[in-house]
Amino acid sequence: MLKFLFGGRSKISKVTQRESVEALLADLNSILVQMSDKPKVVIDPNTGVIDLELPEQMPDEALALPAPEDKKEDTAA
């Protein structure tokens, strides 16, 4: 009976840290490959923190902004 109650835990797939890091890097690299302006990668050896210095405006963010108004219309008014 105890095997039946606790048997489900052994069926949970355990992902190793290596597999987690490899999956995360694959996702990150698939995004970075598509970028025209590549970010600067900064690694802090004291803390182990990896940081990306991204451009001020990303290409997809520029597409989401409203179109600028024509200056010709402003001067005609």
In short:
With 77 residues, the protein is of the alpha+beta class. It is 45% helix and 13% strand.
Which labels suit this protein?
77 residues, alpha+beta, two-stranded antiparallel ribbon, 13% strand
Summarize the SSE layout with pairings.
Layout: H1 2-6, H2 17-34, E1 40-44, E2 49-53, H3 59-64, H4 71-76
Antiparallel strand pairs: 1-2
Total number of helices:
4
- Return Rg in Å: 24 Å
Tell me the β content.
Answer: 5-15%
Q: What's the rounded overall pLDDT mean?
A: 79
**Main beta-sheet strand count, sense and barrel state:** 2 strands, antiparallel
Shape: elongated
Structural class label: alpha+beta
* Helical percentage: 40-55%
Strand order of the largest sheet: 1-2
Structural notes for this entry:
With 77 residues, the protein is an alpha+beta fold. The chain has a domain at 37-66. The protein is built from 4 helices and 2 strands. The chain has helices at residues 2-6, 17-34, 59-64, 71-76; strands spanning 40-44, 49-53. Strands 1-2 form a two-stranded antiparallel sheet. The radius of gyration is 24 Å and the shape is elongated. The N and C termini lie far apart (85 Å). The mean pLDDT is 79.
